[in-house]
Amino acid sequence: MKNVFVVILLFIAVKSQGQIYKPENFRPEIYLDSVKYGSFPNFDIHQIDSISISKENKKVPEGQIFIKSKNPKNLHLLSILDITARYKKNALTPTIYMLDNEILKEVSTFRIDSSYILKVEVLKGSETDYLNTQFPDLTILNIVTRTEKNIAKENEIRIRGIEKRSVPQPNTDAQGNTIFRIRGVSTASM
Fold first, then answer.
1. Does 9 map to a domain?
2. pLDDT digit string (tens) for 104-156?
3. CA-based R_g, the chain, Å
4. Which of 42, 113, 124, 174 has CA 20 to 30 A from 78's CA?
5. Distance between alpha carbon 177 and the CA centroid of its chain, in Å?
6. 120/137 Cα distance (integer angstroms)
7. Which residues contact 82 (CB under 8 A, 6 or more apart)?
8. Among 20, 17, 43, CA closest to 30
9. pTM score of the predicted model
10. 162-179 residue pLDDT tens
11. Looking at the record's lineage, which domain of life comes first (predicted)?
């Protein structure tokens, strides 16, 4: 009787555990211009022509997302290995990868369009006070994307660490020459 009761409890536990929905395991298949990717590739959203979603089927229970770009030839997707080879001297040192100041949790499937990268900031552990002693070989690669917010931030100039001023555009005269003002004196460039 005891064994029957244990088997029934075990059956109920397994049956109820199998029905728990785990959203972190929900990963639809993502296709960009008919190429399958492990995660959503990072690129300018203005390059999207259309998106279609295929609901659950027997082969792919999580569904499928099909993205068509306006001009597939303009997309040049880079992996973390490509970015590491381009911006880091020693590929074997430990590295933390970030996208817009947020740590990337899954780097094996990460892809980003090369034209969507505004800049890549490389910080070595040996250059900081708090990482210098424990992790001098650590490298932090922060990929800054070409969003309106990041471009505006890149064009700001901070004076005394508080004020924000936009970078002024140069003045031009009637002939199209750039006018520079130096201590109140105007000079035109040739």
1. yes
2. 988 888 999 999 999 999 988 888 888 888 888 888 899 999 988 988 888 88
3. 26
4. 124
5. 40
6. 18
7. none
8. 43
9. 0.64
10. 656 655 555 666 666 655
11. Bacteria
